[in-house]
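Supplementary Methods. Inverse-folding protocol.

Structures were first reduced to a discrete structure-token string of length 207. This string, shown here, constituted the complete conditioning input.
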């Protein structure tokens, strides 16, 4: 199950990389490359931090080929899709949720504790999107007004609690994924963000 969830996450982030690149009028090679970097970047950073060798997509080239094929297919199909921004946000949310939980599962399988696993899930979930946004010169979603990393953190903590205290509950991963997606979509639709007292406002200091 973890393997196929990882593949779905690869497809989702590869698609968002292509959509983001398409807005910058890149050629097909650059677009596919960006899709692959977006799809594999978070997991690569995770494996480097955990010193997991070889890196997941080198150990199994299927991940690389899935990212490439998804990017190429998206390049030829996405131009016919209307309301592309909404598609981008939804797929990014789905990919982030899957990457967060699968990264936690891998960290746990390598013998790490729950605290480290939650951090690995958070880093993996947001890193691919950050790389994509930086390379396309757009404002990273992490720096946007709505919650982005917070839903990933909440979902990761929920999964850790369920996995630790209800070991027989086989749908813990699904609860984690659903929590991330739900909170992220609520943040988007209802413009949820931290209250003013939890934000740092430089303008006030300068005034």
């Amino acid at each position: 199950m973890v393997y196929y969830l990882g593949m779905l996450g690869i497809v989702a982030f590869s698609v968002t990389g292509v959509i983001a690149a398409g807005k910058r009028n890149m050629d097909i090679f650059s677009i596919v490359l960006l899709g692959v970097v977006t799809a594999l970047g978070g997991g690569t950073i995770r494996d480097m931090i955990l010193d997991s060798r070889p890196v997941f997509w080198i150990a199994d080239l299927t991940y690389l080929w899935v990212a490439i094929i998804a990017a190429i297919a998206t390049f030829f199909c996405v131009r016919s899709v209307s309301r592309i921004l909404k598609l981008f946000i939804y797929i990014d949310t789905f990919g982030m949720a899957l990457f967060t939980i699968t990264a936690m599962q891998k960290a746990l399988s390598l013998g790490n504790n729950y605290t480290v696993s939650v951090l690995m899930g958070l880093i993996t979930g947001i890193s691919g999107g950050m790389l994509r946004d930086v390379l396309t010169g757009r404002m990273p979603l992490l720096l946007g007004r709505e919650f982005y990393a917070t839903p990933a953190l909440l979902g990761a903590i929920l999964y850790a609690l369920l996995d630790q205290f209800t070991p027989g509950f086989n749908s813990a991963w699904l609860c984690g994924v659903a929590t991330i997606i739900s909170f992220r979509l609520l943040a988007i639709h209802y413009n949820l963000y931290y209250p003013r007292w939890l934000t740092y406002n430089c303008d006030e200091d300068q005034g």
